[in-house]
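Why show two proteins at once? Because comparison is the fastest way to build intuition. When a single record is shown, students tend to memorize it. When two are placed side by side, the eye starts asking what differs. So, the first record is below.
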Amino acid sequence: MTLWLVRHAKPLIDAGLCYGATDVAADPVATRRAAEALAAVLPALARVRSSPRQRCGQLAQALRELRPDLAATPDPRLAEMDFGAWEGQRWDRIDPTALKAWTDDFAHHRPGGGESVAAFMARVADAFDADSANPGDCLWITHAGVIRAIRLLAAGQRRVTRAADWPEQAPAFGQWRRLATPRQKRNPPDPPL
């Protein structure tokens, strides 16, 4: 299987806000550009899964308008991590002791009473394992956190116990990555981060 991981376009929300589970729309022009770029490189009849958040659904719809062979199936396992009461708050205004409690118990603490990293990783791993059992190309329209989790899962790391081990980089809004396989060397290059 070749797994394409695309991040939704820039959301219509102020920078610096925590918005994991918050259902916000994405910039329609940026969404269309991302769909056009993907439509040009995706192989025919790839399986498409999408987070149920509207910022991902917009990209799935724009892609289908350009490529009717790429109809997306919503998959709640591809949703971003839920930060509970932190949702909608500025990251720099969240109580530093609450942030420290999370980083001190990165795997099991539920930030804002939301979802723990362990639960999040298990959810994403379930989707990854299910799609990995099928040959061919698969596209996930998802979020930065899910893409970071997949980087770990693809390397065989099923658990993260320290915040320092969580990948910092993810594709920019509207950009994508593919899991590295020897066959992918013939595919067009990914856009830069």
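Second record. Ask yourself what differs from the first in the token line.
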Amino acid sequence: MSDEKKTGILDHLRELRKRLLWSVLAVAITTTVCFFFIEDIVEILKSPAGNIDLVFIEMTEGFTTYLKVSLMAGIVVAMPFLLYQFLMFIIPALTRQERRTVYTILPFITIMFVGGILFGYFFLIPPATGFLLNFGVDIAEPQIRVSNYIDFITRLLVAIGILFEMPILTSFLARMGVITSKWLADRRKMVIIFSFVVAAIITPTPDVFNQSIVAGTMLVLYELSILLARVFQRRRERPTTEADTSE
């Protein structure tokens, strides 16, 4: 390996280390801030389940749950900064057109993630928790561990938030020419089946109603992905068309 290549690799590693350090520092700060509001955050997470009393049965369970909630909330709050650090690391390797596309979709990445969390919080968690907490109450009284409830809620919210990123990802790939709207449309039938399979995995309840909410949302997001892919595909083809016309 030549000295020039070694220097290039070392520069990339230094840049990666700098971005990681800034990201860790940001998460540490936001996690610390969230810890001071932990009771309010936990109450917000408990709200969709209604009037529920959580318990803990291990000595350290309450403390570790508070730390976990603070960390998750800190990551969500720091998400825009984390995305910025990630993009600043990869942008030097992109073309000018790719950089312009990244800058365009950056705000929508955060917006869609937060939108997914809000959707899960208001439309998915209430019926899911209502079903699970009321099922079997005739034979036993539910006493839910705080760690179990928090893990359940946070995993579900993060999963829905990630699903809402699908239109952004497909828009970026379409703009880069990796996929086309026709390619997405041709796989619509397969996606319908896949949506219900994923919904059955994500949704913690076996009832068709809650699973249909998740699957229907995924299908709407997929149709939105096809529409956005068509728009970005046309924008990508326009410069080529204009160049051919000028010639």
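One difference worth noting in the second protein: Residues 17 and 179 are 33 Å apart (CA to CA).
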